Please model this.
Amino acid sequence: MLFLKKIKVLRYPLLFLLLYGLTQFLTLFDSNHDGLVKDISLYHLSNYILWIAGIVLLIAECAKSKISFLKNISFSLFIFIFFWLFLEIISWSLWKTKIIDFKNPVNSFLFFDMNLNTMDKRPYWGDYSSISGKWRLPNDSLQKLRCNDSTLLIYQTNSIGARDKERSLKNHTNKKRFVCIGDSFVEGIMVNTPDRLSDILEKNTGHEHLNFGINGTSPINYYLIYKSLAKKYDHDVVVIGILPANDFEDYTEGDKISLLDYPIYRPYWKSTNDKIELKHSLATVNQSYSSLAIYDKPYEVYHTKDSIYRSLPLVQKIKSQFRANSYLLALIDEISKRKSATSVPQPSVFENYPKKKWKDFSYSLERLFEEAKGKQIIIMTIPILSDIKRYQKNHKSELSPQLALLCKKNGVNYIDLLPLLGNYQNPSELFIPCDGHWSEKGEKKVAEILQNNIFYRKSLLKN
Model:
């Protein structure tokens, strides 16, 4: 009889464990992804049922308990859930009636949505490199209209996927050869190829300027692109464009939950026991939603997201579920965004760079310096329009002297474009108003600045 009483007391926990075991069996049975029935995930459906049943049973059992502490827990939990649901209903009503317009949550775990897991066409810039992640396909092209004046932009890659004309591995001239590395500003993303910085410099100086710039990258990508690709080409000078506005925004393991929205393949540094290792955000580049393998296979993208979800710690799993289901949190996010938009402008990265990210940022640059040992290296910092306008008001920059010190330590020449562009009377005309990248006038102005700079002029001279 005592055994039966114990079984009766444990019936709900045992049922809970049984249901949990069944969901885990589904995971094992279906390998690294879900079974989908009419675009509903069996795994997540069973998990929702499991957790709802568990919470209801917990409240019910605690409410029947003779222990006042447990009864109080039951009552408090019930009140919390009641008010949370009440606030969810109000938030849903505000969204439904458009009183406050905000993006509604979409349960991308439970329901498979084709639109959330596919791209309209093969991306021109995609995760095509197993080393650096972001790159382009060989001999590819893209045409698009510029956002402000409908100028036709024509992008064309060469045989290695660089947005450049075909280059020989060997330097067949008697002049120095330059390699240019950076993100969208170095790539010249809002102008046609002849109008961008590297092509203007090549035309004006007669020295080849090989362009390996690509948008959406940062110093760790610059290092990997140089090491795996650019270094193969004969060159004497390396020009690195640093964009402080976003070059500190490298992926870290703490950002893993963001991969549930956009599963991308990004390199990052992981420090363990005084050892720094190169890691990537996904197991393989083919798991990226912008990879050649699955960009047009929405079910595979969904499986990648689901695999990421299952690898998250419990706390992040709960957080991601709230993000995917809660109208209340979506409303709070919208209010927060609106408040930020009307608040006092934040200091630029030049004024207040993220100190916690300096270690990885500087380490990536030092690895690049080491890889380019024996070459002349020039680093230039690129300010965006808001950086320039703030500098014109206060003339402050704590990042510039820090970078100058790093460059001096490694024997690298440093050109800070912030004060040089800050002297320009109307900097707005140097940028595309609807996008923020350099206009043709901006590309030409920066080329002029470099050609008048002592470090760049010395790099043109023969040793």
Confidence is low (pLDDT under 50) at residues 1-6, 30-34. The chain has 16 helices and 13 strands. The longest strand covers residues 237-242.
